[in-house]
Amino acid sequence: MRTPVQGYADEATKARLDFLSRTTGQPAEDLVSEAVAQYAEYEAWKLEQIRQGIADADAGRFVPEEEVEAFFDDWEANG
């Protein structure tokens, strides 16, 4: 089930949305709905990854500085 959501966009974004709607034949509402769904999914995933990273660091689970430096030294030397 879809729930109405209201928002605002600048004129350039609205023009791009109108162009995409005309070009793809998809209603602008569907394009906005898909964009918001993808954004929300990605942001939720990203915040969970950050939360897990902080928990790992707090528990002492991280790569020692020497290993990180060695990795980047090797990467710079070998591309």
What does this structure look like?
- With 79 residues, the protein is mainly α.
- It has one domain.
- It is built from three helices and no strands.
- The chain has helices at residues 11-24, 28-58, 65-78.
- The radius of gyration is 21 Å and the shape is elongated.
- It starts with 10 loop residues before the first helix and ends with a helix.
- The mean pLDDT is 96.
What class would the helix/strand composition place it in? mainly alpha
Helix fraction bin? over 70%
* Quantity of strands, as a count: 0
Q: Distance between termini?
A: 49 Å
Strand content: under 5%
Looking at the structure, what is the overall shape? elongated
The structural domain count equals 1
Average pLDDT, rounded to a whole number, is: 96
Order of helices and strands: HHH
Number of helices: 3
Largest pleated sheet? none
Radius of gyration: 21 Å
Which runs of at least 5 residues are low in confidence (pLDDT < 50)?
A: none
Outline the secondary-structure elements:
Elements: H1 11-24, H2 28-58, H3 65-78
Tags for this entry?
79 residues, mainly alpha, 75% helix
Can you describe this structure in just a few lines?
By secondary structure, the protein is mainly α. It has one domain (11-78).
